[in-house]
Amino acid sequence: MKTKQLFFFFGITLFGILSSCSKDDDPVIKKPIPDPEIMSIIQNIKEDSLQKYVMELESMGTRFALAPNRRDVAMFIKQKFEHFGYSATLDSFEISVYYGGALNVTWQYNVVATMDGTVYPDSISIIGGHHDCTVRASSGDPMVSSPGANDNASGVATTLEVARVLKLAGVEPTNTIKFITFAAEELGLFGSKDYARKAYSAHKKIKMMLNNDMVAFWSLPDTSNWTVNIIDYPNSYLLRTSAEQVCKTYTSLKTVTDNTYQNYSDSYPFHLNGFEAIFFISDADDPNYHTPMDLTTACNFKFCREVAKVNCVLLLQNNFEL
Q1: Is position 221 within any domain?
Q2: CATH number, domain containing residue 171
Q3: Has residue 11 been placed in a domain?
Q4: Do 158 and 97 form a contact (C-beta atoms < 8 A)?
């Protein structure tokens, strides 16, 4: 993607909006004009790709953070990024948690893929979501079966698909983009806590963090009512309003901001460490939450595609000099 081309498109768009207004015009709110080059990129986000990733993750049986296959889950995601052409690593850390009446000390694995910035490589944008999942004790044993399709294979799928599309487009961002899937979120946000703490200690310049959690449930086919909840924090109001504008310009999504659960997903540790973060989640309550019925067949991948578009556009708009 060429910086000058993006500047040209945004300049033309702004000029068209300004020149079309006069004091005699009626105050009609018009849908913003999308940038053609961004449109050409996000049209490659595919619902069948999102569905495929979720099905593959569901087929692993369980992705519970204490299950013996936890490293296999991380390796599977790492290999997906590598297949797209990324350099990817496992970011390991140790946790100690009580579960099943005993202290469990385990190694956990975040997965990090990197698209290096061409001008300001030390300035970082993050997109991600947690790859572990669980079920309530009343509905099953997470060590044995925890499909976690919407919660949160959908967030992983969104991260993977945006990574695939940006690589396909040959994007060369001004700033570095990191695609991260976090481990052990369900046990206490351990993966994002570890990553955000280390980033703060190392004085990393994280300019924004986009968190995706439960972004593939909407039971009604009528797109006119599709609504995504964009959760923000006191330092990320402007990032949230930018996301709202992207929804209006590039998607069929309506938006709300209900911050009731802002402390319960992987954006929260980034906020606690002073980084700007927002949290995308469907505004529809998922009846399959933390049950064995959280399956691919209950997901709406058309809705998930719209959320993936928002993430992709925000990365494009915030990683080029305009």
Answers
A1: yes
A2: 3.40.630.10
A3: no
A4: no
Written as tens digits, the pLDDT of the chain (322 aa) is 443 344 333 343 433 443 444 444 445 556 789 999 999 999 999 999 999 999 999 999 999 999 999 999 999 999 999 999 999 999 999 999 999 999 999 999 999 999 999 999 999 999 999 999 999 999 999 999 999 999 999 999 999 999 999 999 999 999 999 999 999 999 999 999 999 999 999 999 999 999 999 999 998 877 889 999 999 999 999 999 999 999 999 999 999 999 999 999 999 999 999 999 999 999 999 999 999 999 999 999 999 999 999 999 999 998 764 3
Containing 307, the helix (H) or strand (E) segment is helix 301-317
The DSSP secondary-structure symbol of 152 reads I
Q: Is 304 a domain residue? A: yes
Question: 153 in a domain, yes or no?
Answer: yes
Q: Is 5 helix (H, G, I), strand (E, B) or coil?
A: helix
CB-facing half-sphere around the CA of 278: CA atoms within 13 A:
27
State how many domains the chain has.
1
Could you list the residue range(s) of the whole structural domain that residue 180 is in?
A: 44-317
